[in-house]
Design a protein that fits this description.
Strand content: 15-25%
CATH architecture of the largest domain: 3-Layer(aba) Sandwich
CATH topology of the largest domain: Rossmann fold
Order of helices and strands: EHEHHEHEHHEHEEHEHEHEHEHHEHHH
Number of helices: 16
CATH class of the largest domain: Alpha Beta
Number of strands: 12
Helix content: 40-55%
Strand order of the largest sheet: 2-1-3-4-5-6
CATH superfamily of the largest domain: Glycogen Phosphorylase B
Length: 362
């Protein structure tokens, strides 16, 4: 079996959340059919500098339902290339127009579309009040619809997204496959140290409206009432510190090339996210590294875990304060063996191979 893998971008540095999910998809497909049988088509290449004309083309084609980076010419090229492959795996549903054009061209292979989110609510949160929002949302909405309508198989992350797809487009995904990671934290021994009296609490997340709103809310409403050290790590977060006076005394690390040291030194992961779609990659990473996690409903969406064993589920300032103070009074191991166990059983690449096999070969 050969696969044409349509991917959003070739990253030159740190993989962001969505691209980490794309890499997982690629890794698992490689296990199933062999890497030599997969050809990747990148819609964007970060190693190539974009010109003003590139941006102008992107804006021009939005009203015609070509998401940024796609043009009629490029989609025709993809359709032509696809004829030599058994499967076209469209890694983002915002490229649903590819599925439509493939079927209109009588492509006889299998078309699979992967929903990293239901994209309309995701982009509504991301775009805020930016000009041209309605045009972009229309383009995104049409592409999600095309992905549902013209794909042979669709994959969503969780039941919430599945229900949202049905409510919007009248069709549920064919299979649910949660966020998963290649295990990067195998050790012969893990630390046996307990959480410190003054816990180091880590927020992990890139500069993005729901992340920004969540951490600023936490710093203003929770931090003054607890005895912790706070650290924020994420791509572009130095910008948020410059913009937001509440963060002036908070340690912020932008564009960290290696997250491992930050995870290992943290006592608790703090994930105060209140808006979004899909699943939070940062939650999966925290499970992988065996962390204590205190997070909101939104940060835990799609994760089937015992919240008390992981750390705690909190949605109000009082709940966060009480849970953090409980850690202060009753120290726990800094390495949470239950979190690690849940990752290995449910959210590692190995745990999702069977579901991908069903999508490919059924």
């Amino acid at each position: 079996m050969t696969i044409l893998f349509i991917r959003y971008k070739k990253s030159k540095n740190i993989l962001e959340g969505g691209e980490q999910g794309s890499q997982k998809n690629y890794n698992v497909l490689s296990q199933l059919v062999g890497e030599s049988n997969i050809t990747t088509y990148y819609v964007h290449d970060e190693n190539r500098k974009k010109s003003v004309l590139d941006y102008a083309k992107g804006v021009f084609y939005f009203p015609f339902n070509y998401y940024f980076g796609l043009t009629p010419k490029r989609v025709k090229e993809i359709v032509r290339l696809a004829q030599s492959f058994d499967v076209v795996f469209i890694d983002r549903s915002v490229f649903g127009i590819i599925a439509k054009k493939l079927k209109q061209a009588n492509y006889r292979g299998k078309v699979i579309s992967f929903f990293h989110n239901v994209e309309v609510p995701y982009f509504e949160a991301k775009l805020g009040n930016k000009p041209g929002k309605s045009i972009l949302l229309r383009c995104i909405d049409h592409n999600d619809r095309y992905a549902c309508q013209y794909s042979d198989k669709t994959i969503a992350l969780n039941s919430r997204d599945d229900n949202e797809l049905f409510a919007r487009y009248g069709k549920k995904a064919d299979v649910l496959i949660p966020v998963a990671f290649k295990d990067k934290y195998q050790r012969e021994r893990y630390t046996e140290e307990m959480t410190r009296h003054q816990s180091l609490c880590l927020f992990l997340g890139a500069y993005f409206p729901p992340n920004n709103e969540g951490i600023v809310w936490f710093v203003k409403n929770v931090l003054p009432h607890v005895n912790i050290r706070m650290k924020v790590v994420g791509k572009g977060m130095a910008r948020l510190k410059a913009e937001e006076p509440a963060l002036k005394d908070i340690e912020v690390v932008s564009d960290a090339p290696d997250l491992l040291p930050h995870f290992e030194e943290a006592d608790i992961m703090i994930l105060p996210i209140f808006k979004g779609s899909g699943m939070k990659v940062k939650t999966c990473e925290s499970l992988m590294y065996g962390k204590n996690i205190i997070a909101t409903d939104e940060a835990f969406v799609g994760y089937e875990v015992d919240y008390d064993k992981v750390g705690g589920k909190c949605n109000t300032a009082d709940e966060f304060i009480a849970r953090i103070k409980d850690f202060e009074k009753n120290p726990r191991p800094r390495f949470n063996a239950y979190s690690r166990q849940m990752f290995l059983e449910k959210y590692s690449e190995e745990s999702v191979v069977k579901k991908f096999r069903e999508v490919l070969f059924d």
